[in-house]
Amino acid sequence: MKRVLSGMRPTGPLHLGHLHGVLNNWLRLQEEYQCFYFVADWHALTTEYENPKRIPAFARELLLEWLAVGLDPEKSVLFVQSAIKEHAELYLLFAMFTPVSWLERNPTYKDMIKELKQKDLATYGFLGYPVLQAADILIYKAEKVPVGVDQLPHLELTREIARRFNYLYGREVFPLPEPLLSEVPKVPGIDGRKMSKSFGNAIFLNDDEETVRQKIQSMVTDVQRPRKSDPGDPENRCVAFQLIKLYFSPDEQAEIVAACKAAKLGCVPCKKRLAEKVVAALRPLWERRQELENRPSLFEEIVTRGNERARDFARQTLAEAKEALFGASWY
Ligand code: SF4
Predict the structure, then answer these.
(1) Residue 276 pLDDT more than 90?
(2) Which one has a higher pLDDT value, 331 or 318?
(3) What is the pLDDT of residue 183?
(4) What is the mean pLDDT of residues 113-122?
(5) CATH 1.10.240.10 domain residues, the chain
(6) Is residue 108 predicted with pLDDT exceeding 80?
């Protein structure tokens, strides 16, 4: 089986955007690949270094949600980056031969500095995080990395680092990872902007049933349709319909579109139906999460085991890298 690596930064609770944009894809991938999924807590530090005490709780939250959505610790290796110190050592070794110009020209670096103006990101750690990312990927010799188009330059940097290492030290230690581009469905927040914790418009996976229902009921609909008797245009003007597309079958969607356009369906009952679907889909997640919360020792065991599996692999790769570098794997 080919190996896949992907991670998430523990910076807050997960929401429907993460579920549809990332986790559902991870669930599919774990059936076809050997997947390594990690909590990127050192990456979180690059932007959250002023509030690091929140990171462990967010890391636990990520792992709980991953298990709740159905990631299977028997199939996938679920682990915490900072528990595998080998990532840091490989990162340091890579840092020695990575030209600064490669990092400075990274478009995401410039965009994020602009986007997160309120944070001081002119740090060594932030500039160097693509090198850490390369270490995360290459230490598991991942052949595939699920990415969005905007992250392709990062992956290219990882490939350049792998190439440079293999060339400098004369051995093909690292495979060149390839992107796994996937279609990411658009998940709007309740106000119509992209769903995001910082916009305050998210439906979180750990929201309770009542909260989910209320949030869905407050979703923006077709603003040109103040009364039920006004014909709507769901596909072009209704935010709630973006979510309807994710939760209803094509036949059900067609029925909603027809009824809305014919002014026969009101937004309140329509969103009530949507809330039913979302709650029904989230209920198994809530139940699995509750089971895990009730059995903390099982949760700890799963995380410890995942970390051990990752560490075994990482140690082996690091030894190979040192053998190529120094001619001595013990060094
Ligand atoms: S009836 Fe449903 S699809 Fe039509 S505008 Fe209202 S919420 Fe949107």
Answers:
(1) yes
(2) 318
(3) 79
(4) 80
(5) 207-290
(6) no
Q: Where are the CATH 3.40.50.620 domain residues in the chain?
A: 3-187+295-326
pTM of this structure: 0.93
- The residue whose CA is least distant from atom 4 of ligand 1 is 260
Q: Give the strand order in the sheet containing 77-80.
A: 77-80, 34-39, 3-8, 144-147, 178-181
pLDDT at 316: 97
Q: Is 225 in the pocket of ligand 1 (CB under 6 A)?
A: yes
What is the fold, at CATH topology level, of the domain defined by 3-187+295-326?
Rossmann fold (3.40.50)
Domain spanning 207-290: CATH 1.10.240.10: yes
CA-nearest residue for atom 7, ligand 1, is 267
Say yes or no to pLDDT of 107 above 90.
no
Would you say how long the chain is, in residues? 331
Question: Is the shortest distance between the CB of 260 and ligand 1 below 6 Å?
Answer: yes
Q: In this predicted model, what pLDDT tens digit does every residue of 194-209 receive, in sequence order?
A: 999 889 999 999 999 9
Q: Residue 151 has what pLDDT?
A: 84
Question: Mean of the per-residue pLDDT values for the chain?
Answer: 95
Q: Is 188 in the pocket of ligand 1 (CB under 6 A)?
A: no
User: Mutation test of ligand 1: which of 218, 221, 257 has the most ligand atoms closer than 8 Å to its C-beta?
Assistant: 221
pLDDT, average across residues 153-158: 93
Q: Tokens 């919360």 sit at which residue? A: 293
